[in-house]
Amino acid sequence: MEPLKEMFNREFYRRFAGVFANIDKGFNENAFVNEVTYNLDELELNGRLRNTSVVLQKYLPKDFKKAVDILYNAAPTLRRGYTALVLPDFVGRYGKEYFHLSMEALKDFTSFGSSEFAVREFLKTDLNKTLEVMQLWAEDRDEHVRRLASEGSRPRLPWSFKLEEIIKNPSLTTNILDKLKADESPYVRKSVANHLNDISKDNTSYMLGLVKSWDNSHPHTYWIIKHASRTLIKKGNLDSLSLFDFEKDIKLSITNFRINSNHLRLGEDLQFSFELTSLKNTPQKLVIDYAIHYSKALGNQSKKVFKLKEMILQPNQVVQLSKKQLFKDLTTRKHYMGKHLVEIIVNGNEFGNIEFDLSC
Q1: CB neighbours of 332 closer than 8 A, spacing ≥ 6?
Q2: How does pLDDT run across 79-137, given as a tens digit for each residue?
Q3: Disulfide: which of 88, 232, 287, 342 matches 115 by Cβ 3.0-4.6 Å?
């Protein structure tokens, strides 16, 4: 599989420079390509993104307004997706002295390549002023703009810095979330759920209080609350379990817990199975997860919880469950050789584990 950073390869930059040269006759196409690719092999994905903005600024007009006009003209011709994040990244880096112009540009560019990272530069500089604009975005007709309102203001957005003021005071984004709590777009709803999940990691009581105030009879709102509560449910938080009528006082046993091999090679599947037996005379609504304790570079372990099944376990019922998981290096996960552990978790409670070795 080709590394993600290869989205920004030499062929990309030749096409990219050609677009700008067609718009701005003063754009030095060859010089730009030579400079932006000079140390390309040394840069990873986000380094290549930022380097593109930095070098591009040298070849566009020094007047920010004129430079943004060229970006507007280039946007429809450029490839959409992650590489188009160059547009908002440029604005986030060089547009802080032009607040209103930059906010409008971020709003427009987000449908080409999300402005979620760039808008955080303005939240860091002037939180309240930027949040006022983002509250308006939450009412926009474009789902990309509405998502930007939620995603850009997430307290713990992956691949970005934390918004410490929002972590300390999560009510700062409540107006945005309230406007989006029943949004028709799955793209927006997922962002709202992730935003709430971020809040739950630092302000559990606040997050639970907020979602309890919402009408979860609406299917869109119910989905958001359920997805937002996933971390709390995995931890067995009683308040979050009760939101969805999961059994708080579970009585069951797990037997015949087996794995296919205690010695696994990278590229092979881990297969495990077990029997779940009810020890209660009333039905129990269960969320069944499993965790892999991955060996890390320094020999310690890092726990990752995965969803397995939701079910209602009837009195005296016995259920057999199984799962297969491939151990293969991915862009988002590198495996290290050594001791690993798989364990079963039911409504946040741990029920047994088995250790195994991973080798090349």
Answers
A1: none
A2: 999 999 999 999 999 999 999 999 999 999 999 999 999 999 999 999 999 999 999 99
A3: 88
Spatial contact of 211 and 228, defined as CB atoms under 8 Å apart: yes
Question: Which phi-psi region, left, alpha or beta, contains residue 37 (left: φ > 0; alpha: ψ -120 to 50)?
Answer: alpha
CA nearest neighbour of 109 among 139, 133, 74: 74
313 close to 275: Cβ distance less than 8 angstroms: no
Q: Which residues pair with 349 in a beta bridge?
A: 346
CA angle 48, 52, 53 (to 5 degrees): 125
User: How many whole angstroms separate alpha carbon 96 and alpha carbon 88?
Assistant: 12
| Size of the chain in residues | 360
Cα(54)–Cα(278) distance, integer angstroms? 61
Distances 15 to 86, 87, 112, 119, 129 between C-alpha atoms, Å: 14, 15, 17, 27, 37
Closest CA relative to residue 134, chosen from 125, 143, 145: 145
- What's the first-to-final CA gap in the chain, in angstroms? 18
CB atoms under 10 Å from CB of 331, counted, come to 11
Provide the β-strand partners of residue 341.
Answer: 293, 355
Residues forming beta bridges with residue 286, ordered by sequence position: 311
How many C-beta atoms surround the C-beta of residue 185 within 10 A? 15
Nearest to 86 by CA among 43, 64, 57, 61: 57
Give the Cα separation of 88 and 109 in Å (integer): 6
Nearest to 133 by CA among 161, 175, 168: 175
pTM: 0.86
Interatomic CA distance for residues 144 and 187, integer angstroms: 8
Q: Hey, is 119 helix, strand or coil?
A: helix
- CA within 13 Å, CB half, 174: 13
185-212 pLDDT per residue, tens? 999 999 999 999 999 999 999 999 999 9
Interhelix angle 219-228/186-202, rounded to 10 degrees, is 40
Confidence band, pLDDT 50/70/90 cuts, at residue 3: confident
